[in-house]
Amino acid sequence: RAERRALEVVCAERRPVILVLNKADRYTGEERDRLLVRLREHAAGLVAAENVIACAADPAPRRVVVVAPDGSETERREHPPAAVSDLADRLWAVVESEGKALAALNAGLFASRVSDRVAARITELRRSVARRVTDAYALGKGVAVAVNPVPVADLAGAAALDVTLVFHLGRVYGLPVTRREAGRLVAVIIGQLSALLGAVWSVNLFASLAKLGTGGAATALTASAQGAVGYASTWILGRVAEDYFRRGGSWGESGPKRAVEAVIDGVDTESLLAQAKEDIRRTLRGG
Description:
mainly alpha, two-stranded parallel ribbon, 2 domains, 287 residues, two-stranded antiparallel sheet
């Protein structure tokens, strides 16, 4: 029954099917004929009787005794040639009767595979560009937040950078959004980030207030930590927005919270912050 079901799946493709009894050399002629009759019975309604063929693709070697003129005997093993002529004839008959339909079908399948490969390549290229764009914005935001001496202005500037990042990511994925729409998307992502990474945002706010209370004098003290937080938040925001656009501008069935959680779960935040600090320091040093 399992083999019958498998055959039904194959035949559902609406292509000519030939059922082959291989290793036919292992049976006597009578046994082979009985097997073909039974196979035709089991495949009735799926495979035409004339398309049930016996062959021997790789016949087993046989022992041959050679008798010399003097009556002595020697023994050797021979490998008979493949016995596939019946199968070859049937294949040619199918090609002659249904060749044009098969050619059209194969062309369609080939075009589909090419289309899939092209789509996969485009997706890969878009992801590569999106990652580079996000990394550039994350570093830019980290540096801008770190060195901005104006109290609270660093937060406003950071928000503007995030909106511009989402605006550009939409274009990378062929789903352009207005800056207003990008702002709403940023607000949704930031809201989820704030709920999931409240402590991180607390550091960001504390650093900005420190600048406010000292007229910017605390910038040197807060630059590294606050810049790293700005870098990391934009990096995560970019990854979340990328997933949103990759899905065609949708959060999917799970909604934005799960989308943000998935990105956060897939990254080591401590390592990301450490990398952010290093990138910011290197950029500020001009290296």
